[in-house]
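Researcher: Structure for this, please.
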Amino acid sequence: MARFPVTALRSVDLGTPDLDRSVKFYCDVWGLTLVTRAAGMVYLRATGSNHHVVALYPSERPELGAVTFRVATARDMESIAAKAVAEGARLVRGPAPNDAPDGGMMMALRAPEGGLLRFVHGDVSHAPEPSQGDRPERLAHVNLNSTDVDRSAAFYERALGFRLTDRSKAMAFVRCNSDHHAVVIADAKVNGLNHVAFLMPSLEAVMRGSGRMIDAGFPIAWGVGRHGPGDNVFSYFIDPSGTVIEYTAEVLQVDDSYVVRGPDQWVWPPGRTDQWGIAPPKADHVKSAQLSVRYAAP
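Model: Predicted structure, token format:
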């Protein structure tokens, strides 16, 4: 397989108007675990080895503070920075030692669309927890809204070394490892966060996790179904601050032989929104929520 300078999506920073409520939700209902609190941030882990997958902090309205990726080597940060700046990004910090609890080396860029992208190497890790059946293992992907999908996808390819996996009419899917996608870029009238997807151990885990959410008073916002690009099972919810989040599983694994398919090939029959044909059309309030979370101001 081709070498990727960025090797994985690690975590997201999410701003919330009610920090205590959000922490309680993600720990007691969604299935994450508190790692630590530092400098106004609350770090939450999944069952995998990543130091954290979500860092929550207080903000006036829900916002996406940063998306963090892991890089193959510390040396890759300098190459990524040079290419990213050439493609219209701005270097914000580093590469330098990271003084946050996750440690290691860190670099931060402001992408052309306004989002903050962080890159880490040698960060702190945990021993993976035994699978508990219905808790997230790690992040699966982040879906970002863009006013220019093709330009955004080109930035991830040219600056960060991602590869385009598929292109539907409304979305570009790009990858940095064998997962079909780590970032999805959705056509929108605003730039910002569409949703964050958490990888579950199995389809059974998606269903059990969805049941736990329903029991806690959080109805399924869209799904359950199976996506086209990526072939992954999905179940969408809206968290207490209004951010759209997803349980997903069975993400398609690809290699260099995978053939990219375009909008003409990713077409559903009328009225269908997933492969199985059981997911109802997405409700207007869900669509609105997917456009409501903007990037944090620089």
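Researcher: Any notable elements?
Model: The first strand starts at residue 6 and ends at 16. The domain at 6-121 is CATH 3.10.180.10 (2,3-Dihydroxybiphenyl 1,2-Dioxygenase; domain 1).
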